[in-house]
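Input/output pair, single chain:
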Amino acid sequence: MKAEWRMLVFAGVFLVAYATPILFPQMPSPWKLTCWIAQLGCWLVFLAEYVVRFARAGDKKAFAKNNLIDLLVIMLPLMMPLRMLQRRLGFQRKVLTFTATTTLVLGLAGSLAILRVERDAPGATILTFGDAVWWAVTTMTTTGYGDTYPVTAYGRIIASVLMLGGVALLGVVTATLASWFGRRFDTGDNTEKLLREALKEIGELKEMLRTRG
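Output:
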């Protein structure tokens, strides 16, 4: 438990170190280098933590299969909250929490990444962090107003990832809600029993009214 909270702190440091040079591009070069070193250091911590746990695992194949999110965290340390949540929630809550957290993290990471590659490009329409956040929201929801859009090759790659991610997350939410409603309003024996009881009560009520009439 304590180890996971320490890793969450490293994820927060990584976020600050990644975002600061993007949000404050005029900061001195030594500070930018410090941020880059901090990012690298945090990434190495996540990599080393996974390698140590993998080495200690008895069934390494099962470990790799059951800890796929850990690999995702190594690629993007901002996903660390997902690793903590997946071990503490039931399936449905886990899916919904996973979706919400992934949406937030993907949107934030996409906003920072698109601002970094687009801001200084000729003809750029994404010039501020506000522009980047607005673009990320419209892209992930597949709204696409067209007022902000990427003009670089790297920007279009980021846009493609966000669009695919948005569609996938929407599909997860839809499937989860459909499953919940399916269990909530089961069409099996329970529903048929309730329907028979309701019809019986209606018949008795009609007979009572006829008798009193």
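The chain has a mean pLDDT of 80. Residues 1-88 form one domain.
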